[in-house]
Design brief:
Elements (H helix, E strand, L loop, with lengths): L1 E7 L9 H9 L8 E7 L4 E7 L13 E2 L5 E9 L2 H10 L12 H12 L1 H7 L2 E9 L4 E6 L8 E5 L2 E5 L2 H5 L13 H7 L12 E3 L4 E6 H6 L6 E2 L3 H10 L5 H19 L6 E4 L4 H12 L6 E7 L7 H11 L2 E7 L1 H7 L3 H5 L8 H11 L5 E3 L4 H5 L4 H12 L4 H11 L4 H11 L12 H11 L5 H8 L32 H27 L4 E3 L5 H8 L7 E2 L2 E2 L1 H7 L19 H6 L3 H7 L2 H4 L7 H12 L6 H17 L5
Parallel strand pairs: 13-14, 13-16, 14-15, 16-17
Antiparallel strand pairs: 1-3, 1-9, 2-3, 4-5, 5-6, 6-7, 7-11, 8-9, 8-10, 11-12, 18-19
């Protein structure tokens, strides 16, 4: 795993780029503490920078930027190509690796493949997570490309007339001539979802390369400051449609197909020249990944869970029980509230742009603690999106089938009635009910979820209903001054897709949006801050295909998500070790904002701090903060988004318009 960066001016410069490139690369040293390199093509004002975290081929033969054997291509590469040995064999069998290999890195494999098959075909054949910058010395073009699902980040934009790019915004901010102005148009959706999603970034004229896409820059583009159009080389929507055409209606064969794909993916992702382990929460996804790892290893797999001092958020006992059954070498990493609280001021620098998924804190903690033992960890990320794990896949069809029959005024009245009871009152009712209810009906933060349901009762369509459930704050415009409100309904954020039913459509929307913009960003920044590489076996194109070939009722059945994954897991782990309410990676945010984080929050929500963000309405936010402190509403998530924005502004202090 690595960090990449670069500058492309299109014209020779009066001074070498190497000092700037080194500074840009060193700003992301956490992504690659083991080695660094820069490479320059002075005749066109091009420079590539690289920081290396050595995972495969620890020798100097893996040094980057790397030149192809024929001398045509230069590559700066961040990520892992899990099937690169298979690609090597194919190149060798075709007699296309005649110059021989200098080492056994996947970077060298990619360069040979680009030479033989071209860029797009190589990307289509490669299985892995990656962001690449490839200079073609013959065609004089620079190609930027990103993996299918967006596991590895890549930002780009124009700075002082030059194209600059990098794995994180930190690198771009070190480019010569950087100014950095906040893009106010992203604030409404940031406040809605808690992340800066889509192609745009928090800065004007700086963009994210979308997942499964590439950009090809000519010397003329760079010289004239032109950003060419994005080319999509892989689409989850297209891949899902293709998979549906081969849907397997034989339940046992369909399950075997998923298990075989997962076994192959896990096996490929266990290849490393450094110590390797896995995150284990004791839930379905991580338990299945660990079970398949242990089944393919003669040695005990090292597994890690994090235990918290607050029993409401501690899953470590469940993880330890699963580990004991599977026979792994398990470590429970004890974390205290103080450890999490100490991280809070560091989040703006760690995440580079405002990010408000509060599970970022435990993710940072487990990454930091795991890195003390291993360099690579496998995770269960993306199991929910591919196999139907989120509650909305169960509840939206049920709720909408009833809501759509009710007149809108009646639904609005029902929503108001639900809010007559404080959310804490609903939590107490659930606590009493948990003594008699089956585990599948026990819902943590029951009051919060009912309040969210009340908010979406007035939705005019199932797309609006989904948008409300997917939102951290369903009414972000209320936090903004009138001039900064878009006026666009939430359903406009989601395209209609022909050929998919309601639940399938939601899974694709989560794959395209929540997974890319929230889940994968959270894990990438948290893990790379500790120089830990995290791999996600569910994000394999064959696993994706197998998931979409399942009949829908094998993903969501009898009010339960991930039915297929559970059946496969029960082949390895007893059902009673897994069956319990879904907890997630949560923290007691309400209590912390009223307690140990109160002074920190008061400073960031002061009129002085809020005045630095002209788009925000300080009166509304101060009222919301006062109500939260008094326990008169559930506003922790909305406030957390504003706090992270305010903290980010304070940390980076860009020019604010």
């Amino acid at each position: 795993m690595c960090g990449i960066t670069g500058i492309f001016r299109g014209v020779p410069g009066s001074e070498p780029l190497n000092p700037a490139l080194q500074q840009m690369a060193d700003s992301i040293i956490h992504r690659g503490p083991d080695d660094s390199g820069v490479w320059e093509e002075p005749s066109v004002g091009l420079g590539l920078g690289h920081r290396r975290l050595s995972i495969v081929d620890l020798s100097p033969a893996g040094h980057q930027p790397m030149l192809s054997g024929c001398g045509r291509f230069v590559l700066a590469f961040n990520g892992e190509i899990y099937n690169h040995n298979a690609l090597r064999r194919e190149l060798e069998s075709a007699g296309k690796a005649s110059t021989g290999w200098k080492g056994h890195s996947d970077t060298e494999t990619l360069l040979c493949a680009f030479t033989v098959w071209g860029v797009e075909k190589t990307l289509e054949m490669a299985t892995g997570m990656f962001a690449i910058a490839l200079w073609d010395r013959e065609e004089q073009t620079l190609t930027l490309a990103r993996d299918r699902f967006g596991e590895k980040p890549l930002y780009y934009g124009l700075v002082a007339g030059a194209l600059v790019f990098g794995s994180e915004l930190k690198a771009l901010q070190r480019a010569p001539g950087w100014r950095g102005e906040v893009e106010p148009n992203v604030l409404e959706n940031y406040l809605r979802f808690g992340c800066v999603g889509g192609r745009e970034s928090i800065f004007k004229d700086v963009f994210k390369l979308p997942a499964g896409c590439l950009l090809k820059f000519s010397v003329s583009d760079a010289r004239n400051g032109v950003l060419p159009g994005v080319v999509q080389w892989w689409s989850p929507v297209g891949a899902a449609r293709t998979a549906l055409e081969g849907r397997n209606n034989n339940p046992e064969m369909a399950l075997d197909n998923v298990e075989q794909a997962l076994v192959a993916s896990v096996g490929q992702q266990m290849v490393a020249d450094v110590p390797l382990g896995a995150f284990l929460s004791g839930g379905v996804d991580s338990s299945l990944i660990v079970a398949l790892m242990q089944s393919q290893s003669s040695q005990k797999i090292r597994t890690f869970s994090v235990g918290f001092d607050d029993p409401r958020y501690d899953e470590s006992e469940h993880a330890a029980a699963v580990a004991a059954h599977l026979g792994t070498e398990h470590t429970t990493l004890r974390a205290t509230s103080e450890m999490a609280l100490d991280l809070v001021p560091k989040l703006p620098e760690l995440y580079d742009e405002p990010f408000a998924d509060s599970s970022q804190l435990p993710t940072c903690l487990i990454s930091s603690l795991t890195r003390q033992h291993v360099t690579v960890a496998l995770s269960g990320d993306a199991g929910d999106e591919l196999f139907g794990g989120y509650n909305r896949y169960v509840w939206v069809p049920r709720v909408w089938s009833k809501l759509s029959r009710m007149p809108l005024p009646m639904r609005q009245t029902l929503g108001r009635m639900l809010k007559f009871v404080p959310s804490s009152g609903y939590d107490r009712l659930m606590s009493l009910g948990s003594k008699v209810l089956p585990s599948r009906y026990q819902i943590r933060t029951f009051g919060e979820k009912l309040y969210k349901l009340a908010d979406v009762l007035a939705c005019s369509s199932d797309r609006a209903l989904y948008g409300g459930l997917a939102s951290m704050n369903r009414h972000p415009e209320q936090l903004l001054k009138a001039d900064y409100r878009s006026g666009n309904p939430v359903e406009d954020l989601y395209p209609a897709l022909a050929g998919f039913n309601q639940v399938e459509w939601m899974m694709l929307m989560d794959t395209l949006n929540f997974m890319v913009d929230d889940v994968l960003v959270k894990v990438d920044r948290a893990s790379m801050a500790s120089s830990l590489e995290v791999r996600a076996p569910f994000l394999d194109p064959e696993v994706f295909k197998a998931a979409w070939q399942l009949p829908l009722d094998m993903r969501v059945r009898n009010g339960e998500g991930k039915w297929a994954l559970r059946q496969i897991l029960y082949r390895h782990v007893p059902r009673e070790l897994i069956e319990r309410p879904k907890m997630g990676f949560a923290i007691p945010l309400d209590d912390w904002l009223r307690g140990p984080l109160r002074e920190w929050a008061e400073d960031l929500l002061s009129m002085r701090s809020l005045s630095q963000i002209p788009a925000l309405d300080p009166q509304v936010l101060r009222l919301m903060w006062d109500q939260h402190i008094q326990g008169r509403g559930h506003y922790a998530q909305q406030l957390w988004a504003v706090l992270q924005l305010s903290a980010w502004i304070k940390r980076w202090n860009p020019t604010v318009n």
